[in-house]
Amino acid sequence: MDALQIESPVAGVRLLRLHRPQACNALTTALQQAIDQALIEAEADQAVRAVVITGEGEQAFSAGYDVKELAGFDETRLLENYLQRQRLLLGLAKFPKPLIAAVNGLAHGGGAILATLCDLRIGGLNSEFRFTAAAYNGVNNTWQLPLLIGPAKALEFVMTARVVPAREALACGLLNAIAENGSVVDAALNVAAQIAMHPPAGVRWHKALIRERAGRSLEQAFDAENAVMSGPLRPGRAAQTFDAFLASRKR
């Protein structure tokens, strides 16, 4: 059985399911490479307008990197593997289409990073996050987590390496919504389907502009949005621009 299962359960939506339930869906090097390849294929497929990532079962989204694999590496191989994983994470962060994590159960270590690199996260009552690097004298997720939940909360979570339960995760922005246990994937697919109904170019530009907002002044962000609307998304005739919108209101 492949460690990554790829499904198309809803029109316009690709579902990537981490399938290592015996190891709480821990991320091996091969599994992370498979995720990267699946996202390359999803980006190239014009029929795919949103991607959902989840883990098999209700216990774990992902327990993080597979420590049994890492324990077998010498110092040189361990560094090479770390740098390779970081490149793959950067590629995930730059993925242009909407990414939604269905966080069914725990998301620890690399699993928490994977989830927080997605644009939206839907969890269950049993969902929890834990950023573990400080516990093994490492550092991780400093480049992205503060943009998501602010520097104060990010510092708290990464320095204590404590478990963040579902309701606290919802309150601080780690989760966008909580669904009933057992229906997390369906809830994430419903959100993805709503996104997939819209013209893809506008959705992608929303993601790009919001992701690139950090570090820009208010005026720079304002100018960037207007450059898109007067350039790649320049409106044509009013009828062409709004026909699809008006049709969607009748559904």
UniProtKB/TrEMBL annotation:
| PROSITE patterns, alphabetized | ENOYL_COA_HYDRATASE
Instruction: Give the highest taxon in the source lineage.
Output: Bacteria
Q: Which organism is it from?
A: Sinimarinibacterium thermocellulolyticum
Output the Pfam families linked to this UniProt entry: ECH_1
Q: What is this protein called?
A: Enoyl-CoA hydratase/isomerase family protein
InterPro entries associated with the record = ClpP/crotonase-like_dom_sf (IPR029045), Enoyl-CoA_hyd/isom_CS (IPR018376), Enoyl-CoA_hydra/iso (IPR001753)
Protein family (similarity comment) = Belongs to the enoyl-CoA hydratase/isomerase family.
Q: What is the lineage of its organism?
A: Bacteria, Pseudomonadati, Pseudomonadota, Gammaproteobacteria, Nevskiales
